[in-house]
Amino acid sequence: MRILATVMLLFFACQLVPAQNTDGRITLGLRGGANMWFNDYKDRKIAPGGDIVFRYGISPVFSLGLIGGYEQLKIEQKEPDLQRTEGYLKVDGIPVSLIAWFNLSPGSRVAPFLYAGVGGMMYKRQNGFGIYVPENTWYKTMHIPVGFALEAFAGNSVSIVVDVGYRFMDEWTDNLNIEGSMPDGYATAKAGLHFYLGSSDSDDDDYDGLTNGEERKLGTNPKSPDTDRDALRDGEEVKKYTTDPNNPDTDGDGLTDGEEVRTYNTDPKVADTDGDGLNDGDEVRKHGSNPLKEDTDLDALKDGAEVAIHLTNPSNPDTDGDKLNDGDEVNIHKTDPKNPDTDGGTARDGVEVERGTNPLDPSDDIKKPELTAEVGAAIVLEGVTFRSGSTEISPESEGILQKALNTMRQNPAIVVEIRGHSDNTGSRATNMRLSQQRAESVRTYLVNRGIAPARVTARGMGPDYPIAPNTTSDGRAKNRRIEFYRIK
Fold it and tell me: In angstroms, rounded to a whole number, what is the distance separating the alpha carbons of residues 71 and 103?
């Protein structure tokens, strides 16, 4: 019962193994089991036996080979008679047969076989006293095996086999030839293992979805499921994605086929999935743009044009931070999308476009204020200074601010915007904040001295409106200024 339970467990485990084929493969087998001799004696006995199998698969259905081994046969006659003079006989036989196997379910995990063959057996007989009958010599008999085998694969190179069959012999193996009796023979039941050598074109040794024969035609490795190591199985590449299983980067875009399929959802057969002029690998690895969109940052420039021609950032619509869209700079203003001040005239391109000056002409970058009290005019309060990096008004500025205060008192209808300006030292964000705070300080000065809050507002202009080049200390000092801009 234990043996039967073990065999059943092994057969169940074999259901987890992919289907196998036997054609084109050599089989070596070792089996053992029990025999029961049928002859002119009456009382049957069970005896051991074992054999060795050598087989070659000629086709998925047909195999041819040899079986040889050692078989022991026993028989008993509890009541000897004149014809059956021995009460007990034992045969030690060495059979060799040429066998043809017929696979009834080729390519299955569990394959049933029918087989038949022809051969011979050398044997000796002994009686119950160990005496050779009739003498100590080797006798010969025909040996014709037929039977049924069930083979379950436990892997692509080993199977578990259960075999039941019958072996026909001549009439003389029991040293009797009783008229009208059938030829002698024995039933046999064996189990064992078959070991497979070589490879079948019908098999899929690496379980990649391609048969070994298909892989040989394609030039892929039938022992490796991913020949080109691109994280796609060879079968997936051929049957699902139609990529080259021998080339990890079918379209040559710098991404492996596996990365394109599993990570980026790009087309592994098209180098530029979104058709923006930049191959997928450049977009993903070098510039951080989206290889599925032509214009990742929606700046009216295709990512490919940005990277290959303009060298801008395809993930940022304003590469140089000048408040102009890269696409507008290239297509409309003809400015450099990588340089915030294309003409080098100290005013950023965005500022010039906003105020109507030419961002390609440096001569109009510096606006000369007209010292007038007309609406819309900007009056520079020269001499108003602040402590370095501070919003605190310096004592020497008192005289200038007092004049501005007197003008506001004498002209109660005037409404002004106090504008704070800075040079370009430091970050733009810092200068914008500092210029706003300094304008607020001047407004507070006026309001604290009786000017109605509604008549003065404060606005920080940062470094965007210089009146002198920022290349010298004198020019930077002029740009750090306070202006009164008359609104009404």
Answer: 26
Q: Which domains does the chain have, with CATH numbers?
A: 2-197 (2.40.160.20), 206-271 (no CATH), 378-486 (3.30.1330.60)
Angle between helices 398-410 and 428-447 (to 10 degrees): 60
What would the mean pLDDT of 125-132 be, rounded to a whole number?
93
Report the C-alpha gap between 318 and 343 in whole angstroms: 17
Position 165, amino acid: G
Residue-wise pLDDT for 88-100, tens only, equals 999 999 999 999 9
Q: Name the pLDDT band for 453 (thresholds 50, 70, 90).
A: very high
3-class SS shares of the chain: helix, strand, coil, % to 5: 25, 30, 50
For residue 108, give the amino acid letter.
S
pTM reported for the whole predicted model: 0.49
Summarize the confidence of residues 113-121 as an average pLDDT: 98
The DSSP string of 84-122 is ---SEEEEEEEEEEEEEEEESSTT-SEEEEEEEEEEEEE
Q: Which two tokens stand for residue 397?
A: 């500025």
Six token digits for residue 322: 């000048």
What values do phi and psi take at 345, rounded to 5?
Answer: -95, 15
Bridge partner list, 467? none
User: What is the distance between the alpha carbons of residues 197 and 194, in angstroms, rounded to a whole number?
Assistant: 10
Strand partners, 114: 102, 148
pLDDT level of residue 372 (50, 70, 90 thresholds): very low
Query: Could you give the 3-state DSSP secondary structure of residue 166?
Result: strand
